[in-house]
Amino acid sequence: MPQATKRKRETGSTENFKEVRQTIRTLEASLSDKSNLNNIVDLFKFAKSDNPQICHAAIHALNRVFTAFLMKGDLKRVKNTDQPSAKEKVQIWLRSQYTDYLAHLRTLLWNDEPGLQLPALNILMSNIKSESEYAMNTSGAYHFANHVYGPIIKAIITNPNFNDHLRKEVVEKYLNVYDDLRHYFFKDAAEVMNRAYQTKQSTTEVEQKKKKLKFSEEVQQDDLGLMASNVLSILENISTMPTDASEIDEFWTVNPAQYENDDNNKKTKSEDDEILGDEGLLSDDEQPLTEENDQKKKRKHPLLQLTVHRRGFSDCWLAFLKLPLTEEMYKKILLILHKRILPHLAEPKLLMDFLTDSYNVGGAVSLLALNGLFTLIVDHNL
């Protein structure tokens, strides 16, 4: 992801927006004919304009163009890349343009202008829905386009311009509404944080051996601090974690239950593993298994299982707690610990190390940590 830069506002620009908008519309209309595919390049130039209005118009036009190609199957990966046919060469080029377009939208999430951040986010989210829909239509199995969603989450939690406008859009419009988006946020954010933390640890070990400190290490520390701040601002505002499997009923794509008993369901174990991590198919603790419903439980999709959502929640919080935290962050976490965190953790005892570290911070943080330790001892028999 490139460095975030403030977009210069053009004053007295010679570009006439109405004329450019008409040009964009003409280019978009021309792309109904594949002989005009090179016009995508011209649209892309407008999408990179420093004029927010032009950029806004172009990214929406490109979204309509690429969505149409996607649903027709023109953006699917070509398997034979060594000796592709003429048609496959076009398909490879189209997919490359689409990939570049998604990357550009993610850079707009780092823009200092909310008027570009929010449309970019909403277009990216619509692409998740379109990609998922296309995959499900062609395979007959449930699919969530996490290859699109994961990079979005990374762009969000590493965003130096993560303002209140963007946070509210992410949390209130998406994560607090849709169970699949919230679950995959936990999964993807945990993966990004764990990788960043491991990279920092590896760098530190190397530098300690060399007995010198490089500027790159300081930058990494700053990056981890930024990530911690962004992630906490999201986590502390997520308020819709399910407490019963029956509450898992809102999906940005489709309800996976539609595919549970479909004879044409071709979902593989690897797709389940992507959702569950190392857990495998799990049953809900709140619903005891009997011989009568055993087969039904085995067929239940992972995203409909409460334990899967709790595991994702736990993994995300535990990954977050490894990051460098300020005293203010410790206070925020400890204040919401009892009602917003502990009830949803798969294993509350895993917070013992965090609470011990919190106690060592001193002052008001120590008092809050003692309260948390007391709760673990009394309520969770630790």
UniProtKB/TrEMBL annotation:
Example of a GO cellular component annotation carried by this entry: small-subunit processome
Could you provide one GO biological process annotation from this protein's UniProt record? ribosome biogenesis
Query: Which InterPro entries does the record match to this protein?
Result: Noc4
Region (Disordered) location? 259-298
- Its protein name is CCAAT-binding factor domain-containing protein
- Acidic residues composition bias: which ranges? 271-292
Q: What is the lineage of its organism?
A: Eukaryota, Fungi, Fungi incertae sedis, Mucoromycota, Mucoromycotina
User: Which superkingdom does the taxonomy of this entry point to?
Assistant: Eukaryota
